[in-house]
Design a protein that fits this description.
Dihydrodipicolinate Reductase, domain 2, globular, 2 domains, about 20% helix, Rossmann fold, 8-stranded mixed β-sheet, 16 strands, alpha/beta
Length: about 325
């Protein structure tokens, strides 16, 4: 069985932990976080976004817990170089703090494999399940990219194999994240304005990540806005081709993909964002919302639970 450590127990680290403890092919050997052990049953057992979890939870001592019958060591250090992961028989470290995105920082973990659950610097290769995961070749430190990248990249990769694409423009209407303040901060940056009261123009690195993943496509442009919802994001994408392209052909291509129902899905009901909460498919095409713009362009509306579907993609990559 694969044994992992989770460094950081924020939104992604927490959800990865909860997904893994339900599985029989992966186990969590250790977590490193700043949360007192006594607070972990409440923190892990309840969630304002995804609801409660029925966990068989025991506190063994101040450094160990048992969840669903499996022992997990609990560490509390801000310096990865101080952790001997071999002591806990760790195969892979899931770096989920968001603070060690550079190769040199992430490689401080004393482990053969480190998977960063966030975009990283250019020294760290990106792997996205459904795009280039089969190209993994024992690299020491890798990145799973972002939740937005894991939505758009597999779709663009699949379509690029069947159609000639001239340009792609997209905007992600993204749910709020922990990086945003509840109330305005004393700052001139609009990213420091209240997440509860505003639609906030934001940047996204997803277009650059897609270019790294699919080098033969360069005309990809992405932007973002943050909106006051707690989870589930939407992408509005326009694809322009040098020759005729039909929405029906795109949908048929997606349906015939081997990863349909795992990475892609076409939803024909007229749903809203909360209907996709907890959905682990990273690229859900909104059939009624997508449309033919011209003989050479189509508009696709995509949904993704930016927490649950991203964690699902991370686990697929992890197992591969």
């Amino acid at each position: 069985m694969l044994t992992v450590a989770i460094n950081g127990l924020g939104r992604i680290g927490k959800l990865l932990f909860l997904m893994i403890v339900k599985r029989n092919d992966i186990q969590v050997g250790a977590i490193n976080c700043g949360i007192p052990v006594i607070d972990l049953p409440t923190y892990l057992g309840y969630d304002s976004v995804h609801g409660g979890e029925s966990l068989d939870f025991d506190i063994i001592d101040e450094c160990n817990i048992r969840v669903n019958g499996k022992k997990v060591s609990v560490l509390d250090t801000r310096d990865p170089s101080n952790i001997d992961w071999n002591k806990y028989d760790i195969d892979i470290v899931l770096e989920a703090t968001g603070k060690f995105r550079e190769y040199q920082k992430a490689s401080q973990h004393a482990c053969n494999r480190i998977l960063i659950t966030a975009p990283a610097d250019e020294e760290v290769p990106i792997f996205c399940f459904g795009v280039n995961h089969k190209e993994y070749n024992n690299q020491h430190v890798i990145s799973a990219g972002s939740c937005t990248t894991n939505c758009v990249a597999p779709l663009i990769h699949a379509l690029n194999q069947h159609f000639s694409i001239e340009q792609i423009n997209f905007i992600t209407v993204h749910a709020s994240t922990q990086s945003q303040p509840v109330m305005d901060r004393a700052s001139r940056k609009r990213t420091d304005r209240s997440v509860l009261n505003n639609i906030i123009p934001y940047s996204t690195g997803a277009s650059d990540a897609v270019k790294r993943l699919i080098p033969d496509l360069s005309n990809i442009f992405g932007s973002a806005v943050r909106v006051p919802t707690s989870d589930v994001s939407m992408i509005d994408m326009v694809i322009v081709c040098p020759e005729k392209i039909y929405l029906s052909d795109i949908l048929d291509t997606v349906k015939s993909n081997p990863l349909y129902n795992e990475v892609f899905y076409i939803e024909n009901e007229t749903l809203v964002s909360s209907d996709f909460r907890g959905n682990t498919i990273p690229c859900i095409i909104d059939g009624p919302g997508s449309e033919q713009l011209s003989s050479k362009s189509v508009r696709l509306v995509l949904w993704y639970d930016n927490e649950a579907s991203y964690c699902s993609q991370v686990l697929k990559l992890l197992l591969h």
